[in-house]
């Protein structure tokens, strides 16, 4: 799966926007989940358990909230997902 498709799949399943810093057609692992993670999970834990195992540690991944910023690692996924409802 290329980086763009991975980002789109994560957005569709998790309801979270990420940006992967790689060349457009670089192949990375597949997103292996079909259901979104629990809302009580933190961004840091989510990245470590669901994203980095697929893309690897050497590729930069940014999580983007509804205001266009990177949330703190201790932000819960519920809070992050709520931020998209308040997009302008």
Give a quick set of tags describing it:
88 residues, alpha+beta, two-stranded antiparallel ribbon, globular
In short:
The protein is an alpha+beta fold.
Structural notes for this entry:
- The protein is α+β, with helices and mostly antiparallel strands and 88 residues long.
- Helices cover 39% and strands 11% of the residues.
- The protein has 3 helices and 2 strands; from the N terminus they run αβαβα.
- The protein has a two-stranded antiparallel sheet with strand order 1-2.
- The longest helix has 13 residues.
- The termini are far apart.
- 18% of the residues are buried.
- The model has no long low-confidence stretch (mean pLDDT 93).
């Amino acid at each position: 799966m290329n980086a763009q498709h991975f980002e789109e799949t994560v957005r569709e399943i998790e309801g979270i926007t990420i940006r992967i810093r790689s060349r457009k057609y670089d192949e990375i692992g597949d997103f292996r989940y079909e259901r979104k993670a629990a809302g009580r999970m933190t961004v840091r834990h989510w990245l470590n358990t669901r994203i980095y195992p697929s893309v690897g540690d050497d590729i930069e991944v940014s999580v983007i909230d509804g205001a266009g910023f990177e949330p703190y690692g201790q932000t819960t996924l519920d809070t992050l997902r709520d931020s998209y409802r308040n997009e302008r």
